[in-house]
Amino acid sequence: MKLKYRIALAFALLSVALMLMVSLIDYYWILQNTSEDFFKRLELRVELTQKMRIEEVNASGRIYEFKNIQLDKLPFQKEYDVYESRIEADVRKFDLSLPLSFFEEAKKNEVARFRAKSVYYAAKYYRDKTGNYFVVVSARNEATAAYLRNSRNVMLISVAVGIVISLIVGFLFSRMLLRTVGHINEKLKNITATQLHQRLHVTGKYSELSELKRTFNDMLDRLETSFETQKNFISNASHELNTPLTGIIGESEYILKKPRTPEEYQASLKVILNDAERLQKITGSLLHLAQTGYNGKIQEFKTCRIDELLYTVKQTVDDRIPENNMFMNFELVPDDESKLLVQANEQLLEIALTNIIMNACKYSNNKPVEVTLVAAKTKVIIIVEDNGIGIPTEDLPYIYEPFFRASNTDRFNGYGIGLPLARNIIRMHHGELEVTSEENIGTKIRITFPIATTLEIPKSR
Q1: How far is 400 from 291, CA to CA, in rounded Å?
Q2: Tens of pLDDT along 319-354?
């Protein structure tokens, strides 16, 4: 069922429920008040009947005149004297539908009321020289019954009309409410991958629908940025891969044109080897970068100590850059080993930390690089700080884009993949990466991981 029909139906049901509730309350109030009024009229006739009996007023007396002339006779009004000594016999004699409790109540409270369907009874207990007896007056409340029947009919008709009106009003209301949603839907149908520049028109007035439009526009902004980034990534990756491939093909064609001397073959093979190694590094980095796009679902995690992992990273850095000047500061490491445990894929996390620390050594021309390990209550923090060339302020927003390199890194080898790869890996470990830098002063990188006792990452399926 479409949303507009559901809204119309819900509106109609709510309206009908409210009408029924008000009608039932009104009906009950009418019933109670008319019944109370009728019983009072019966009780008045009980009093007058008894006074006529006690005072032995004849047919021309004032009470008789008041009772029969001034008071209208009630429909099917009847009067009975039921003696206490023969209640059951008199009840059968007069064919009264009255229980014995009715008379007990009249004797106890001096007046009693009872209703059997549409017949109302009122009684009062009296004592005189003829004996103890009850004066009982009965009548049918025809006027109230007719009034209630009419009220029920009016209520049923009102509810039926109300259902129709509620459905119509609800449908019109839902159409008016969802008209903007329909416009949004039509507009979104026209937005394709090649037309991500289109946006929904947002009015200045604040409303939930305006907020929905703003949310859609923000999503489109992110999608457009993502598509542009992907497009640039593909373009840059093609260029980076094409450069060494062109060198390999060109050098191969060159040495195959004619016989060469051993020295020439050796020189060409060195060129091919260098380009092949460069190609291997690029494809390896791209492979790792692609693997980190699965949010860890295909990776296996286990508990490891972050300090031991840092020692492994230091050994790797020492092997690759023997002249580095990196040192580790473990002064803030606690004695409690559990504060150093993290859930991690050691191979990937080692790649991320190695890339970050090697960049610090490379871009600082092997000046001192300090790696500090800090353990907090629920987190373990790694701080890598160098005194290198830094990152220009205008380049900081783009440092996580694959193949992007800062404007002051021309004299350093690199492909612009290390930091995006490291960030993806750290995110896989539910960590955070913060970079602060100032050109010609240095860069500070802060990496935060939740300790293993606060986060358990499930193993891959």
Answers
A1: 16
A2: 888 899 999 998 888 878 888 899 888 878 888 898
57: left (phi over 0), alpha (psi -120 to 50) or beta: beta
Q: From 351, 347, 349, 354, select the one nearest 380 (Cα to Cα).
A: 349
Q: Where are the beta strands (DSSP E) in 61-145?
A: 78-83, 111-116, 119-128, 131-140
Q: DSSP string covering 193-237, please?
A: TT-TT------SS--HHHHHHHHHHHHHHHHHHHHHHHHHHHHHH
Which residues, in sequence order, are CB contacts of 113 under 8 Å at separation 6+? 39, 42, 120, 121, 122
Q: Which residues of 128-158 are buried (b: 16+ CB within 10 A; e: fewer)?
A: eeeeebbbbbbbbbeebeeebeebeeebeee
Residue 348 burial (CB count, 10 A): 23
Cβ–Cβ under 8 Å, residues 378 and 454: yes
DSSP state of 69: I
Q: Any idea which residue has 């291997």 for tokens?
A: 280
Angle between helices 262-291 and 418-428 (to 10 degrees): 30
| SS3 label, residue 166 | helix
Tokens of 57: 């007023």
What confidence score (pLDDT) does residue 60 get? 44
Element (DSSP H or E) covering residue 319:
helix 306-320
- Of 121-130, 141-150, 351-360, 380-389, where does the model show the most confidence? 380-389
Q: Are strands 131-140 and 119-128 parallel, antiparallel or unpaired?
A: antiparallel
Separation between Cα atoms, residue 405 and residue 395, nearest integer Å: 8
Cα–Cα distances in angstroms (integers) from residue 333 to residues 45, 304, 305, 352, 382, in the given order: 101, 15, 12, 21, 11
Positive or negative: CA dihedral 274, 278, 284, 287: negative
Over the stretch 135-189, which tens digit does the pLDDT of each residue have?
888 888 777 667 777 877 887 888 788 778 888 887 787 777 777 677 777 777 7
Burial of 312 (0-12, 13-18, 19+ CB in 10 A): middle
Distance (Å, rounded) from C-alpha 80 to C-alpha 375? Answer: 99
